[in-house]
């Protein structure tokens, strides 16, 4: 019976080796799947960021168009720039942001 016992022991050892190898393979494939899943998440996040950035740029373009359409008085720009010692571009933009209202623009600049 010793030959039968040895064969049974050998089968158990082979079975344990196969189980260990199977577990190792599962861990390896799980790791690869996780990496692929992470890669997909990164790509989705990058696409979302790109779409958000494009939306922000479009919103800024629209805002610049709106501001450019505001009628302002050149004398108001000169007064604000000179009295508050500002660059003309800053004075003009602030005046446009306040729809040409010089008093509101000055108050905003003084805060």
Percentage of residues assigned to helices: over 70%
Q: What order do the helices and strands follow? A: HHHH
Q: What's the rounded overall pLDDT mean?
A: 84
Tell me the number of helical segments per DSSP (H or I, 4 or more residues long): 4
Protein name: Huntingtin-interacting protein K
Organism: Rhodamnia argentea
Pfam families: UBA_HYPK
InterPro entries: Huntingtin-int_K, HYPK_UBA, NAC-like_UBA
Descriptive labels:
mainly alpha, 4 helices, Huntingtin-int_K
Give a structural overview.
The chain is mostly helical and 111 residues long. Helix 3 (88-97) crosses helix 4. The mean pLDDT is 84. The protein starts with a helix and ends with a helix. It has 4 helices and no strands. Pfam families: UBA_HYPK (PF19026). Residues 8-17 have a biased composition (Basic and acidic residues). Residues 70-110 form the Nascent polypeptide-associated complex subunit alpha-like UBA domain.
Briefly, what is this?
With 111 residues, the protein is an all-alpha fold.
What's the arrangement of secondary structure elements?
Layout (H helix, E strand, L loop, with lengths): L1 H68 L4 H10 L4 H10 L4 H9 L1
Helix pairs in contact: 2-3, 3-4
């Amino acid at each position: 019976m010793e030959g039968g016992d040895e064969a049974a022991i050998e089968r158990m050892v082979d079975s344990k080796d196969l189980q260990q190898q199977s577990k190792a393979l599962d861990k390896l494939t799980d790791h690869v799947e996780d990496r692929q899943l992470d890669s997909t998440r990164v790509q989705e996040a990058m696409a979302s960021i790109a779409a958000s950035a494009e939306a922000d740029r479009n919103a800024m373009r629209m805002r610049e168009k709106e501001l450019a359409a505001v009628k302002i008085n050149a004398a108001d720009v000169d007064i604000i720039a000179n009295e508050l010692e500002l660059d003309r571009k800053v004075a003009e933009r602030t005046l446009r942001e306040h729809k040409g209202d010089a008093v509101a623009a000055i108050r905003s600049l003084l805060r």
